UniProtKB/TrEMBL annotation:
Entry annotated with the keyword Glycosyltransferase: no
Identification of the protein by name: Amino acid ABC transporter substrate-binding protein (PAAT family)
Domain Solute-binding protein family 3/N-terminal span(s) in chain numbering: 22-235
Domain of life: Bacteria
InterPro entries, A to Z: Solute-binding_3/MltF_N
Signal peptide start-end: 1-20
Keyword annotations of the record: Signal
Amino acid sequence: MKNLILTTAALALTAGIAMADTVRMGTEGAYAPWNFINDAGEIDGFERELGDELCKRANLECEWVKNDWDSIIPNLVSGNYDVIIAGMSITDERDEVIDFTQNYTPPDPSAYVALSDDVDVAGGVVAAQTGTIQAGYIAESGATLVEFASPEETIAAVRNGEADAVLADKSFLAPIVEEDGELKFVADDVPLGGGVGMGIRESDGELKEKFNAAIQSMKDDGSLNELITKWEVSSTF
């Protein structure tokens, strides 16, 4: 265990020192409207537009890297990219492994979606994406948690009867419910997390401060709220 910790720390330090002028932005590309792959095969969404603007304000050249959610933190630590910008809520547990910028959206309410109004979300089977704050909440709630690698699989689990309901960010679920004639919001919203921020290696303090300053400048001039409203990802600041 000690060797593993030392190796991880060494990798993070080396990656931070070796960081080139081009900053690699890691995202999932599967969580619309936050981030997704458009018809042209390019990363798109709220975080693509936000990330490009933050890089511009921080005077950084940035390129985008797609990475599956379940390995997104380990691959940041090992140096596959320099920043996570993927709808990641700031939590104490994650903050023990990586660092975060200030939040670029306020805490987004989580919501339950099911096929029936009478679903028992407190004692039934509830789906969530692996490694999310929603999965952690369900595991401690008394309900039976079923985890899936992608957000699309959590929705499919409700549709095919593997789960009674799904718990996810309301901004992700809202357009799905609107387009689907059978799925519906049930129970009360659940406030979770400390808002969404950029994940950065703990050794990259200078990069963190550059993005903190860029985020703050967008908060100050109102452009961040404009983007949040445009993409309907959360409440505004």
